[in-house]
Amino acid sequence: MIKKVDHIGIAVNSLENALPFYTDVLKLPLLKIEIVESQKVKVAFLQAGETKLELLEPTSEDSTIAKFIEKRGEGIHHVALGVASIEERIIELKEKGIRMIDDAPRLGAGGAHIAFMHPKSSSGVLYELCEKKGLKG
Ligand code: ZN
Question: Where are the domains of the chain?
Fold first, then answer.
């Protein structure tokens, strides 16, 4: 049911401060920067071979990313699993007793359809299901 690790989400205080490490030191190509209003984050995607890194900067104090950084500091926030037919995957997971944060997919960065699983169901890891409907990459 899982195609690949689509990306790893990393919470940062500031894209401006965090990006040079990725672009200048690791030399990863910066794919794009966009603001996702619904999640109150500014997002930068970097290509890291087969997968991507998603840096998430909060744009508001009540952003879930701002709260995450306040509690745990900057660092890995979630792992995104690339899937097909995300609605069916959600139903399957729920049938297996997995708690979902999102019972239905919503729009994430780059127009992807995403849904988060509750980390209580996955040993503390926040997993995102991610489907690129009609989008490349
Ligand atoms: Zn993500």
Answer: 2-131
**Cα 32 to ligand 1 centroid, rounded to whole Å:** 14
Per-residue pLDDT of 20-63, as tens digits, reads 999 999 999 999 999 998 889 999 999 999 999 999 999 999 99
Global pTM value: 0.93
Distance, CA 64 to ligand 1 centroid (Å)?
13
Distance 46 CA to ligand 1 centre (A): 12
2-131 is classed in which CATH architecture? Answer: Roll (3.10)
**64-89 pLDDT tens trace:** 999 999 999 999 999 999 999 999 99
DSSP states of 33-100 = EEEEGGGTEEEEEEEETTEEEEEEEESSTTSHHHHHHHHH-SEEEEEEEE-SSHHHHHHHHHHTT--B
- Determine the distance separating the centroid of ligand 1 and the alpha carbon of 16, expressed in angstroms: 19
